[in-house]
Specification:
The protein has helices spanning about 5-15, 60-75, 90-100, 115-125, 150-165, 180-195, 220-230, 245-255, 265-270, 285-300, 330-340, and strands at about 35, 45-50, 75-80, 105-110, 130, 145-150, 170-175, 200-210, 235-240, 260-265, 280-285, 305-310, 315-320. The protein has about 350 residues and is an alpha/beta fold. The termini are far apart. Keywords: Cell membrane, Lipoprotein, Membrane, Signal.
Length: about 350
């Protein structure tokens, strides 16, 4: 069956957007907000998580994969963004409306779409789906590519960087929403920092708890959490909080301390006035996973199932933009190789 509740309203939102080949298009942030891209052949719909294109982090990384596919593969894209607090039906409707608009290859960005992808994929067996950050049975299907990452491994490296650079032996972690996925970031960060300095102090703060996902899009909450850590003595704070990370950078700038970005190389994407406080970023190559999915469909090599992008596969890494880790790069690369070689096994859940 198709999911049609609220379809008329959503269809209006999807059809109201013009087509453009520009990679800078952005959704309205509402369930019907979408943008189209010109091109021929394959048509790809992208359903963003809360924050949408322009969050300078997770969603923008996914958008970069779609933009590359538009440029290199000539695909046509349409985009729609989630809003905080929306119902499960709204996510299902968003996916179905992309399909009904002719975008029969769909990327769902974020684990919040797990159940919606599973249900809509089962109802549309001829449509190819990809979901980022979920490998659960909820989203599994013969037409679903589950794209996941070893966030713990990349976070280990930036945790080591934080400990190597901290003069106070006191660092922090701000998580957007307290879920098992974000705990992977925390676990890796903690393990990397303690590999360098077993006695380092690590503050941890989650901005919201499920089902409240506003922790990924609340700059004020991110700023307040980081301010508290800096005032308490931390001198490096890592965020895994999506759009809320902008507040962490603002707090770092005001305190004269350092911050660590996530998902994208945020020393390139954050506002210019805060880039100088970004020590490094844990790069999660969502763009690669999205592009690989689209290319596999175009090439006829699509395979369902969970595809894991880890350090060995080049799916996660740390950024060097700004030169702030140049003096410790050899140490970070040694940790990186030990993880790849299996000499270091990075935990996926926090120690405490």
């Amino acid at each position: 069956m198709k999911f049609v509740a609220g379809a008329a309203l959503l269809a209006m939102g999807l059809s109201a957007c013009g087509s453009s080949s520009s990679g800078g298009d952005s959704g309205s942030g509402a369930s019907g907000g979408a943008t189209g891209g010109s091109g021929g052949g394959l048509k790809v719909g992208m359903a963003y998580d809360v924050g949408g294109r322009g969050d300078q982090s997770f969603n923008d990384a996914a958008a970069a994969g779609l933009d590359k596919a538009k440029s290199e593969l000539g695909v046509e894209g349409k985009e729609a963004a989630a809003v905080n607090g929306e119902s499960e039906n709204a996510r299902q409707e968003r996916l179905q409306q992309l399909i009904d608009a002719g975008y029969t290859n769909v990327v769902a960005v974020g684990f919040a779409y797990a159940s919606a992808v599973g249900k809509v994929a089962a109802a549309n067996p001829d449509v190819k789906f990809a979901i980022v950050d979920d490998a659960s049975k909820d989203s599994a299907g013969s037409n679903v590519d589950q794209i996941t990452f070893a966030e713990n491994e990349g976070s280990f490296l930036v945790g080591a960087a934080a400990a190597l650079k901290s003069k106070a032996n006191h660092i922090g972690f701000v998580g957007g929403v307290q879920t098992d996925l974000i705990k992977k970031f925390e676990a890796g960060y903690e393990a990397g920092a303690k590999a360098v300095n077993p006695s380092i102090k690590i503050d941890v703060k989650y901005l919201t708890q499920p089902p409240d996902f506003s922790g990924f899009s609340s700059v004020d909450k991110g700023k307040a959490a980081a301010e508290g850590m800096y005032q308490g003595g931390a001198d490096v704070v890592y965020h895994a909080a999506g759009g809320s990370g902008g507040g962490v950078f603002t707090a770092a700038k005001a305190a004269g301390k350092l911050a660590i970005g996530v998902d994208s190389d945020q020393a390139k994407t954050a506002p210019a006035d805060v880039r100088d406080v970004i020590l490094t970023s844990m790069i999660k190559k969502v763009d690669v996973g999205v592009y690989d999915f689209i290319k596999s469909v175009k090439d006829g090599t699509f395979k369902a199932g969970n595809h894991v992008y880890d350090l060995k596969a080049g799916g996660v890494d740390y950024a060097t933009t700004g030169g702030k880790v140049d003096d410790i790069k050899s140490k970070l690369d040694d940790y990186k190789q030990q993880i790849i070689d299996g000499k270091i096994t990075v935990p996926t859940t926090p120690a405490s």
